[in-house]
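REQUEST ID: PR-0412
SUBMITTED BY: lab tech R.K.
PRIORITY: routine
TASK: structure prediction, single protein chain
INPUT:
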Amino acid sequence: MVRRVIVLGGGTAGLVAALTLRVKLPQLQVRVIRSPDIGVIGVGEGTNTAFPQHLFEYLKISPARFHALVTPTFKMGLRFLWGPRPEFYYSFVVEYASRFEGLARANAAYVDDDTRWLSPVTALMAHDKAFGRDASGRIQWHNNYAFHVENRKLVSGLETLCTEAGVEISDGKMTVAEHGPTGIKALVLDSGERVEADLFVDASGFRSELLERTCGEPYLSFGRTLWCDRAVIGGWPRTSEPIKPYTTCETMDAGWAWQIEHHDFINRGYVYASAFISDDEARAELLRKNPNIPSDKTRVVKFRSGRYSRFWVDNVVAIGNASGFVEPLEATAIQVICLQSRSLVGALEESRFEISDAMRALYNRYNCAQWDNIRDFLAIHYAFNDRIDSAFWNACRVDLDLAGAAEFADFWKQYGPSGLVNGLLISPSSTFGLEGFFALMAGQRVPVAHPYVPSPAERGTWRRLHAQFEKESLRGATVAECLTELGPLKG
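STATUS: complete
OUTPUT:
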């Protein structure tokens, strides 16, 4: 019977897991053990809609409270400097997979070199606006948004929310994990304290102290598909630059660079494959593109993309980086944490807090599929990006393993966007679904052998809608304007 839960790790993963367990299952005793010797990874971080939905809809956290604690900025999607066109946008609403009245096919079939946006949302993004305004000038708030957050502020805010929810947070460093008949019996801390629990959540990050080091769970690399293994990170204080309502993803010689927008700081990071470029060369390329970054204020972070064979072993459940990691493209790290935390709550509820092998197996199957689906989605970002002629990108186009996205890609190259692939060539458990795959294939202008040819009437409809969306976007609200009018989000 699970009554006491220990969460090992006080970063985003551990705190989101603890907060979720305590809010949804208040009968549980939840304690977070954080190591004072392990600092927070202080980088700018992007999220997708899974994070605000988890906080505000699932956990019922007050948006106003979260904004006051974390001071995030709004993210409406991504701007890709990727593929043959100057840019394309991928938002958090269904655009590419939907169909406008008067069109015979999904919108993705009508994307051409002149298409800059496919809905009012991407039109707003293209004009550096976050939300639209109605005829009276009031901001039209909606729920299809995410955040840019500074990691230290996020952790601090989550600590406050956890404490308010009744989570115990204490400092300590694990020295020994004692084994028992059903897994781990207790953790021994450097203070000498011996901590027992019924369930141990491993949120120790890349160290995976409990799942890998203690339980010995094997690791499965995604290295055949995701080649990038390092990032050089920097940034500069914001001066007169507007706060962009999106994450910028820019193609670089041996990978790509993000730009994440904070109130007072612009965060840049170059994600690259060390097999194709050295750390010094990557740093030099980032600085050439971004002369505002102080040359002595960059740092390199190493990582590997992959996951463990199982995430729940005996009475140990790994959350976040302790269970796996994929590179930062598409900002999936916090999404995975939310999905894992939510499915853990579901497993405990459904089992009446008495976990069986069958429940563990189901949990592992679902969450392993989430990691694999993310790998497949990221694969198409690399296999079809022809923006730069470099050794890295040339190799990606020829040698990269598309893994679970291979069949979909072959079908697209024959017929383009088709709803027939949904649930068959695209996993029904994929959080990106048709919309994500269509957006990246159409956005990169991946050639189609038998494309749909629109009628003149359809082309006319498409052009009218494009112009209408632009007109509406021009009266939209910038991120800065939205952040001063958070009243409608209170509740």
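NOTES: The longest strand covers residues 230-237.
REVIEWED BY: pending
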